[in-house]
Amino acid sequence: MTQPNDIRHDWTLKQIQALFDLPFNDLMFQAQTAHRQYHDANAVQISTLLSIKTGACPEDCKYCSQSGHYNTGLEKEKLLEIERVVKEAQAAKEKGASRFCMGAAWRSPREKDMPYVLEMVRQVKSLGMETCMTLGMLDKDQAESLREAGLDYYNHNLDTSPEYYNSIITTRTYQDRLDTLANVREAGMKVCCGGILGMGESRQDRAGLLMQLANLPDHPESVPINMLVKIAGTPLGETDDIDPFEFVRTIAVARIIMPKSYVRLSAGREDMNDQMQSLCYLAGANSIFYGEKLLTTANPEASSDMKLFNRLGIRPLELREEASDEAHEAALQQAIEDQKRSHLFHDAANASTTSSSVN
Ligand code: SAM
Ligand code: DTB
Ligand code: SF4
After folding, report:
1. Is 264 a residue of the active site?
2. Pocket around ligand 3: residues whose beta carbon is below 6 Å from it?
3. Per CATH, the architecture of 13-323 is what?
4. Residue 77 DSSP label
5. Residue ranges of domains in the chain
6. By CB neighbour count within 10 A (0-12 exposed, 13-18 middle, 19+ buried), where does 153 fall?
7. What pTM value is reported for the model?
């Protein structure tokens, strides 16, 4: 398939660093220009997160509250019941989220967990929402079965540059991450892949992460840029803050080199004021996590996000606008089912001769 000239997969580190080095106003202008080529500049997609299995993770990610390697005081929780997950998804939908993201603290899902997560996907999807999961590494078969159950997106972050990766995680390799991303793509799911800023990495590492993302065979449809949430008890619990302008610059560069993707202003918004978040939107962020909780840490109140949206003239992107055909179809089917269940529904094809007709 041919792609527009600005959808490139051959970015060099030097070119990306040159974008980072631009005067701030020039960088913001380029980012806005790229943003407006492919997106409504005043619409933001909103997703809600739920941790479906919490803590006791065998991986040693130095930033994570859920790693079993550190004592963070987090309360562990087994895989949630399907019913509970669906209830949370319904509540998120009622608050205006168009996508529901379910995360598990696993290195990879065990075979015995799969039937449960597949059923979660089916049921959340039948609410008419887009579905996303992040369950750790997937093999080809697991990716295939998630896709068949109706999973739209799989979140799997590269987190940082290949060079810095080993300073953050030692229990898996960069190549492990790339392999799962390839399995997800091959199965036909959309990819949500990004990283974390503020882990003590250099600007070169930030550029290196973005280069990896932009040079994947296809750009991830969703690119979450997280700001480290410092968790007491983890090795990164006392890391120095990243300069807020450097964070905004990284969003802008992501926007320029992956112009079609949704760039998500992800974790860390609790520690950003309205002005910084507004700059991120101006730099091309057009997606957020919405709702009071991320996986284990706090996120701004939904009402305060809506207040800021109102002040900025931003509106939440509706699912219909994203033209997700399958989600549409699922929503339509659900509406038909709901209507059937309603006592006002008259099914002419199956009506008995004695039933009274409804006009
Ligand atoms: N266990 C799965 C995995 O790592 O792929 C999925 C869950 S994991 C918590 C999802 C992502 O959340 C991580 O890849 C990381 O980028 C992000 N994350 C985790 N803890 C974070 C923190 N303290 N601050 C910012 N982002 C964080
Ligand atoms: C992503 O990039 N950020 C989300 C989601 N993908 C799964 C997770 C953020 C987690 C922040 C820390 C926590 O709440 O535990
Ligand atoms: Fe486990 Fe994911 Fe946390 Fe790493 S980021 S410790 S894999 S839950």
Report:
1. yes
2. 57, 59, 61, 64, 66-67, 105, 136
3. Alpha-Beta Barrel (3.20)
4. B
5. 13-323, 324-359
6. buried
7. 0.87
